[in-house]
Design brief:
Layout (H helix, E strand, L loop, with lengths): L18 H7 L1 H4 L8 H4 L9 H14 L5 H9 L9 H15 L3 E5 L24 E5 L1 H16 L10 E8 L7 E3 L10 H12 L13 E9 L1 E8 L12 H18 L4 E7 L3 E4 L16 H13 L5 E8 L5 E4 L6 H4 L4 E2 L6 E4 L6 H16 L3 E6 L4 H14 L3 E3 L5 H11 L7
Parallel strand pairs: 6-7, 6-9, 9-13, 13-14
Antiparallel strand pairs: 1-2, 3-5, 4-5, 7-8, 10-12, 11-12
């Protein structure tokens, strides 16, 4: 006879949940860009919610989507606690998952002191109430960001993500330990990977076949391999308000590009460098660790200032290959006016000054402004003189933007790609891997 044993419902197995898959499901919540469905109508961004409650909600949603929990399980766990989440089995299990994420180094929790006016110590007159809950915030660690980059590469590149380690091949030859190409006479400074056959043949041709064989400096031949060069990359991310304006979030995919590139470079090209530049009304270098919490703002598009900062960063890099990867969805609409410029006083009443900056910010939201375009192309020309290629990934097909990008790519011998938020990451990564067999001259 078959017996059926009934036991108390215990929720789900916390230690059976794959943390990697869970982090992957939480990626959109952790890379929030301030986008909301009603932004087109309200022009108001929602503030990033990095509270512990928001993290619990995101985890619960991920568990439901992955089928680890269903609606009936949730009702059972809440019913046992009079329908309240606080103190329920579900809260306990989700808290244990958060503990696992923290212990594995994917997330970090910190307590933030609440503003004085929000500290509730009691309710009612002469009555000691329940203290207000602790203000716990979460943030993605460097390991968490690196893992999200790995998952992006895994999805998009598959086996191509395992391309040869470390460096970008060029058409030039170098000495080394690989014996793939023809040998050459040894020169001071070459890697001493002797081509024994060529060395002996040189000595025999000079002295004839005899014993002992006298080797001279000129007889030494070394094997050659492909000369490999390191590369310095600056990713320029447009964080103007249009990146979340037209009914879709374009900035989150742009952040994923930077995170995936960072992982690719760290694991496959350890000699390379990657810097992130945000450009808006101005431009700023952004640490990759701060990328997850970065949002777009009510900004214009100062492409000239972004290029100027990127050029300054690349000038300090001792790399033979230097490139700029620019991701934008709009034409330049702003540029700084220097005090020495004749137009400074003419534009002064129409312009704003940035904090701590004597320059004026000239803005024209309509685009195609002669002054803005001239300032932008001046920085493009400076990149060309420095031998820096600019590859542009466009998230819009505006006529003026297309014409501007054509000029820019022609000047720097770069490329322009039309992309959308769904294929942007793939476009950028595939282009990066493709150009590992070329050299930027």
């Amino acid at each position: 006879m078959k017996f059926i044993r009934y036991s108390k419902f215990n929720g789900f197995d916390v230690f059976g949940v794959d943390l990697g898959e869970l982090m992957d499901s939480l990626s959109d919540a952790m890379l929030d860009s301030g986008y909301s469905d009603d932004y087109w109508w309200t022009r108001e961004r929602h503030k990033p919610d990095d509270s512990i409650d928001a993290l619990r909600q995101a985890i619960l949603k991920a568990l439901l989507e992955k089928g680890i929990l269903d609606e009936r399980d949730i009702k059972k766990m809440l019913a046992e606690n009079d329908g309240k989440f606080r103190g329920s089995l579900m809260e306990e299990l989700i808290n244990k998952l958060i503990e696992r994420l923290v212990e594995e180094g994917y997330l970090d929790l910190k307590e933030v002191e609440q503003p004085l006016g929000e500290r509730g110590l009691g309710v009612g007159q002469g009555e000691v109430g329940e203290p207000s809950p602790r203000n716990i915030k979460f943030e993605v660690t460097d390991k968490g960001l690196d893992f999200l980059g790995y998952k992006t590469l895994q999805k998009l590149l598959g086996s191509m993500g395992k391309s040869s380690i470390g460096r970008h091949e060029t058409p030039h030859l170098d000495t080394g330990v690989e014996a793939a190409l023809s040998s050459k006479p040894y020169e001071f400074g070459d890697t001493i990977n002797l081509d024994v056959n060529a060395t002996l043949m040189s000595a025999i041709a000079r002295e004839g076949l005899g014993v002992p064989l006298n080797l001279e400096y000129s007889d030494l031949y070394v094997r050659q391999q492909d000369y490999s060069s390191s590369c310095a990359t600056v990713v320029m991310l447009d964080c103007s308000h249009s990146m979340i304006l037209y009914g879709e979030d374009r900035f989150t995919p742009a952040k994923k590009v930077a995170i995936a590139l960072a992982h690719l470079i760290r694991t496959q090209y350890p000699g390379d460098s990657l810097k992130i530049v945000l450009f808006h009304d101005g431009a700023e270098e952004l640490p990759i660790s701060k990328l997850a919490s970065t949002q777009v703002g009510p900004y214009h598009t100062n492409t000239a200032e972004g290029l100027k900062l990127a050029l300054r960063i690349l000038a300090a890099q001792r790399k033979e290959m230097k490139q700029i990867v620019m991701i934008t969805d709009g034409k330049p609409t702003a540029a700084f006016i220097e005090p020495s410029n004749a137009a400074y006083f003419a534009y002064r009443r129409y312009s704003d000054s940035m904090a701590g900056d004597k320059r004026l910010l000239y803005k024209n939201s309509m685009g195609n402004d002669p002054f803005v375009m001239a300032e932008t192309l001046k920085e493009v020309q400076a990149c060309r003189k420095a031998g820096i290629m600019i590859n542009t990934f466009m998230l819009a097909s505006d006529h003026y933007l297309v014409e501007f990008v054509k000029k820019m790519t022609a000047m720097t011998r770069g490329k322009a790609y039309f992309a959308n938020p769904n294929n942007l990451t793939q476009f950028v990564l595939m282009d990066f891997l493709k150009r590992r067999t070329t050299r930027v001259k």
